[in-house]
Amino acid sequence: MRRPGLAPLVPLYAAGLAAREWTLRVGWEQKKRLRCPVVSVGSISAGGAGKTPLTIALARLLTANGIATDVLSRGFGRKTEQALAVDPDGEAEIFGDEPLLIARHTAVPVFVAKQRWMAGELAERRAGDGCTVHLLDDGFQHRQLERALDVVLVGGEDLRDHLLPAGNLREPKSALHRAEVLAVREEDEVALAWLKKHPCDGGAWRYRRVMQWPHEMPQPVVAFCGIAKPEQFLDGLRSGGIAIQRELIFRDHQPYSHTQILQLRRAMLDTGTRAFVTTAKDMARLGRAAEELRQIAPVFCAELEVIFFDPAAIIQRIQKLLAAWNG
């Protein structure tokens, strides 16, 4: 989202980034090192890059190939403070919507803490002597935790964007030099062209995203979400032939209270539609409110799945990383 009126504040934000970079370079901000290797999945964007779906896909890929894995996350938006192991049957207000989504869509343990090294220490206490690959969700800017591999998603929209607060970038494009692997969508021609001019030493992981929903979902629908880039969700539905009668967009990480349920109820009554459809992250955040919503109409979930172009190469890279770490 572009906010041209805030452009005069960008130099202040950039100065803050430069100051933090200096503290890291001179060693004033100490890094924590866990016993097991950390693979960070991140981006230079503040949201909507698809980090969580890629983390889920990577967790599934590693476990399917016999590599013990867990996920470390901040748990943004949760009301608790302590480091916790995520209960897949729990609530987003306790664990955060993204950690809950990851726990429900993978077979791996997920841990949350504001300081993610604390989540890692909790994970390693639970694991005992076994060595696990820690996947650090949204970890590119969390440089207090030492990592063995930095995987960074890059998209054409990021390459055309501007720094916060005028744009959506947490860091400038020059920060991509810290990435050891760049993850790029197969259909993103802008990013692929940029990658040819600026190849990453560690190579690129190409992937595609597929949006799926239940075949029995009736139409037309009321579509709603509270995510960073709602247009991606809505465009995905429309490109799949879903007829959207009305759309309701809430702020990113919006908790669903009785107020939002009333808004959705009004939209359903006004349009005479037959069903609601939302994102997997919103379903995780609905919690008990989902039952209240289902009393109005059925609620369906459109899930975003990441499919890697060359999963064998990814497994080989992680196996080499583990061998070097343990050697």
Please bin the fraction of helical residues: 25-40%
Computed Rg: 20 Å
Terminus-to-terminus distance: 46 Å
* Main beta sheet: 12 strands, mixed
CATH level-two architecture of the largest domain = 3-Layer(aba) Sandwich
Structural class: alpha/beta
Count of individual domains: 2
- CATH class (first level) name of the largest domain: Alpha Beta
Give the topology string: H per helix, E per strand.
HEHEEHHEHEEHEHEEHEHEHHEH
The best one-word shape is: globular
Q: Are there runs of 5+ residues with pLDDT below 50, and where? A: none
Strand residues, percent: 15-25%
Average pLDDT works out at 93
Keywords:
327 residues, Rossmann fold, 12 helices, 12 strands, globular
Description:
With 327 residues, this protein is of the alpha/beta class. It is built from twelve helices and twelve strands. The protein has helices spanning 10-26, 51-64, 92-95, 97-105, 116-127, 156-160, 189-197, 230-239, 258-271, 280-286, 289-294, 311-326; strands at residues 38-43, 69-73, 84-85, 110-112, 133-137, 149-153, 181-185, 204-212, 221-225, 244-249, 275-279, 299-308. It has a twelve-stranded mixed sheet, with helices on both faces. α4 (97-105) packs across α10.
